[in-house]
């Protein structure tokens, strides 16, 4: 694992944070507004967008960090966050 694993986990964490933090700020601002006047459809769309954009990088971060703990024959050996996301989409698709 060592330094390479530390760097890969850190990079995955940074990308996950960079993709979810702006959306989280938008979500908090929307929550602080008077949401009683906001249409339900708008609230649902905001939640769907946040989930669709924020979840895959977070899953990639967790998988990259846990990959080093798997037995060698079960490791996915992700090269980068982009590689992790592409392998995840090829293996599981959108669910």
From TrEMBL:
Q: Name one Pfam family in it.
A: Mito_carr
Q: Tell where it localizes.
A: Membrane
Q: Tell me the ranges holding the Solcar repeats.
A: 34-95
Under InterPro entries, the record lists:
MCP_dom_sf, MCP_transmembrane, Mito_Metabolite_Transporter
Q: Which GO terms describe its cellular component?
A: membrane
Main site of residence?
membrane
Q: How does it sit in the membrane?
A: Multi-pass membrane protein
What PROSITE patterns would the database entry show? SOLCAR
- Does the keyword field hold Transmembrane? yes
Ordered alphabetically, the record's keywords are:
Membrane, Repeat, Transmembrane, Transmembrane helix, Transport
* Family named by the database record: Belongs to the mitochondrial carrier (TC 2.A.29) family.
Please identify the protein, giving its name as recorded.
Uncharacterized protein
* Organism annotation: Populus alba x Populus x berolinensis
Lineage of the source organism?
A: Eukaryota, Viridiplantae, Streptophyta, Embryophyta, Tracheophyta
